[in-house]
Every structure is written in C-alpha cells, then in structure tokens.
Specification:
Blueprint (H helix, E strand, L loop, with lengths): L2 E5 L2 E4 L4 E8 L8 E8 L6 E6 L6 E3 L7 E6 L4 E6 L8 E11 L10 E4 L3 E6 L1
Parallel strand pairs: 2-11
Antiparallel strand pairs: 1-3, 3-8, 4-5, 4-9, 5-6, 7-8, 9-10, 9-11
Length: about 130
Amino acid sequence: QVQLVESGGGLVQAGESLRLSCAASGLSFSFSSYAMGWFRQAPGKEREFVAAISWGGGKTYSADSVKGRFTISRDNAKNTVYLQMNSLKPEDTAVYYCACASRRYSSGSDQVRDFGNWGQGTQVTVSS
C-alpha cells in the first residue's frame, strides 16, 4: 500500500519561507523510478499544479505563479521529495498535496490525472 506523508506546513507571514517534505513508502518499485509532484488546493478552487520533478531528478517544472520562488527537489536515498517555498504570498495559502506518478520513468507532468497516489495534504497559510 503506497503512502505519501507530507509535513512542514504551517502559518507564516508574507515574505517568509517554508519547506515541505513528502516521504513515500510502499511503492512497488524504486522511489527513484517515479516522477513526483506537488499540487495545491485553496478553498472553493480546483486543485492546481505547483511543481514536478522527473523520475531521475534531472528535470523540474513549476507553475508560472511560483517560478523563481518555489523549488522542488528529491532525495532518492530517503524516498523523499521536497518543496522549498520562499517569498511566500497570501495567495499561496492552500492545502498542499504530494503526488506520485502513475507510471514509472515519467519525465513529469502538470496534470492531476497523471498522478495515481496522493498524500493527505498539509495546510500552508500565509498572512499579509
């Protein structure tokens, strides 16, 4: 049974930073063979793409709204993916979800449908 457990969320002021972590377990194959992603969902809005990283970690993608502020990375030895969030804004307030690609050896995607396993989410609140 695949488990993705996020941590690191919290309440911060605008301009501050947070680092989210997502630890994976129970995968059928090596963690390093799966692309990983971060999505977020604010109240009353659809879940939206934030960032993704390829199975090997060589390629990363991010939404225009977070480019230059958020960085995704992974530590395959720890089965963990991270999201470093700097210069946070009130509009970044949302529940952040970690996701694992449905297929192995994917270069990454910004589509919800390409991710088959999801964490429970961690709340990030940015006050102005």
